[in-house]
User: Fold these one by one.
Assistant:
Number 1:
Amino acid sequence: MDSRRQSSAKPITHKDYKSDIKPVWCPGCGDFAVLNAIGKALAFLELPREEVALVTGIGCSSRIAAYTSLYGFHGLHGRALPLAAGLKAARSDLTVLVAGGDGDGLSIGGNHFIHACRRNMDLTYIIMDNEVYGMTKGQASPTTAADWAQGKLTPRGTGIRPFQPAGLALTAGATFIARAFTGDPNELARILVEAIRHPGFAFIQALSPCPTFRPEQMGWKRQVRAFADETTADPLEAARRIQSDDGMSLGIIYRRELPVFQPGAPAREPAAAIESEFRL
């Protein structure tokens, strides 16, 4: 353990990682539990706040960076992962967390998601999946069931099969894949600890009910259960488990150690040398 942490008179708690800004999420939103789980995981790992960065995109869940006392970057819609990759490339010493929603991460950010999985940089990505666009008032997202017919833009349903986030992550090359439920924040925190410790790209699908636009999701607490099998390092076995599941089983599905991509930070050239390249 770091000597700085041993000498601390006051033990670190999850509250030390929260800011003074009050969340504006709707009462009952699962994202509150993700905020608490991040704090609990970081406190368990005793990570100093200045050694952690949280990068987010746009949406209800992406507001989470402002509610922490960590270094944060609230980026553009769907662009959290490339921002985080750039930060990790320049500052490999930082623990870099990325957070967003199913729309932010799998729709406009879908291309960045699959390439982040295959690149396998040492990042931890949490998608708070409520199967709806909450901030823009209830449109269907990439994980919304085809027959969900309550959105104003899709009153008869989308008619399009939803993404399976864990399956997509596995196919694209993520080396740590888990599914958690915000109704069990302690288990979510435990999975987060394992994800942060994992060397490589770790993906967590956090089932996060939306009480405002998807009130029926409050029944998820009666549907979720733990995966019957232990974590596997075999991608074929992981694929079988994911494809045969209804999306309600929880736990670390797949974990495998492969080479981590960490590009070297570019050398800093004097400004005059850079300017000389553009002189006519």
Number 2:
Amino acid sequence: MIKKLLLPVSLALILFLWILSIPAGASPHAQATPFPTPTPGGDGRILYTVLAGDSQWLVAAKFNLDIEQLRLLNNWTVDEILIEGQVILLGLASQQDPTAQPTAQSEATPEGIPESPGSGMICILLFDDLNGDALRQESEFGIVSGAVSVSQRAGEASRSGTTMDEIDVDEEPVPTCFEELPIGEYTISVAAPEGYNPTTAQSATLELKAGDETRLNFGAQLGSAAQSEILTPEEGGRSPLMGLLGFVLLLSGTGLGLYTWQLSRRR
């Protein structure tokens, strides 16, 4: 009778000792083999294909991920239902925190792309319109000391300068140029120096685009008063006023001579 009782007691004691050898909180189900993390692709993304029965919580538990981070990566709502065969994003190999701001390096301007929207150049020539036809001929060159200004409508640029009568190596007149102007709509104004009369409009507007090199010609012609000052008798010219005075004196002398001759005949 005693022998029959010893066998169940021995089995119960062995079972009790085996249970005591299991760590606290552990269970056969808790020691299941974890799922391996998928390998990142060439673009650094770690993808996973949903299996039957998967849910947000189950996928997060499989790969030891934060559920909120997983939702953020995939733009899920709290009630999002996963579908078998669906490919989801587990993470990025080069970005541990999906909420992190881009680094300064990621914001750098790519090489070869200008940081500014661009600029252009405007050149102005005030030419001596000798024949007054408002068109510059090859024999018509620049006028010195004229005033010129360029102003952007948006107010980002406003410059001024003076015109020149210089010529370059190709014997072409040298214009007054304004470089590195920001793009936009510009008003160009020209004022001829004293003694010159405009033969063209003295202002214009244009749209300056990136890389443009625009040249505008404005004409002016010497006034009659200025011409008489230049063509002085000392320089070999003839003054119109002196010529008129000489003609009047010549007529007066001729009339006086005729009058004297008639008086002499009456006597």
Number 3:
Amino acid sequence: MKSTTGFRLSSGPEPHRIRTKLILKAHPDVRSLIGKNPGTFWVILGIVSLQILIAYLVRHQPWWVMLLAAYLAGAFANHALFVMIHECAHNLLFKKRSLNTLSGILANLPQIFPSSVSFQRYHIKHHSFQGNHDLDADLPDYWEARLVKNSFFGKVLWFLLYPVFQAARTFRLKEIRPVDKWVVLNWAVQMAFNVGIWLVFGPKAFFYLLLSFFFSVGLHPLGARWIQEHYLVLDEHQETYSYYGVLNKVAFNVGYHNEHHDFPSVPWNKLPQLKQKAPDYYNNLLYHTSWTKLFFRFLFDRKLSLFSRMIRNNRGKVALTDESKPDQELITTA
């Protein structure tokens, strides 16, 4: 029975460091996949240009046309830019860290809200301390999960306002410096871009980009990506899931989430090869095949809630132990 009142507590370490060591031992040739992909920069430039072009084209269209364009096209483009920011956060484009950060700021432009630099800080913590509520901003807050509960309307509201909830989580992480010169640069560039879009193209172009942002992470089948990655939908003991559906083609393989957590230094274009090189470690894991199906299941299944996540109290230390039968119990208090 999946819990709707408390996170599931694991007494073992997160599984990815363990599996990484085992895969490297069994398949040392996977090291050849680790590296940079500077071609990602041109992908970023292309998608940013596409979003600006569509914003220009809808600037004089009826509001309903702008809305449809944001839902049917802008959401996919904006989601792809999230994946590009994710690549920049892992420094998977260039050797110089600053060039990756600047590329992330570029990818951030059509998203209206300056977040690429801050995302990098919080996301790396997610990889280092998966499941630790004090360090992993990917985990919902206790108040957030209690507010949404397992109701259909609560989940709809959560999807609709997902960026707001995500931003609120960062306040509980005390070990990250919230502001530095890169964050200030991110904000300054983004504000200048936003003002430029409004003044040059007009309000409809601005709202096209704004709605594209909210649809790309929220009340849209693409929003199921956040459920796919770590929610205990298919099994109560497997805390990370991949997605092997057709939308990986326009989402730049972001669905290969187990593979990414095991080898975060492998760029997006080589993640399918990683799965192929280590089939004995990935073919036995449960996975999702449809974000759309998952989106509606999460909305309507009252057994699923924001508490359908694994949580742990350690700080992510590695222990090469057998996790096939970890001790589990429910944790219901903050």
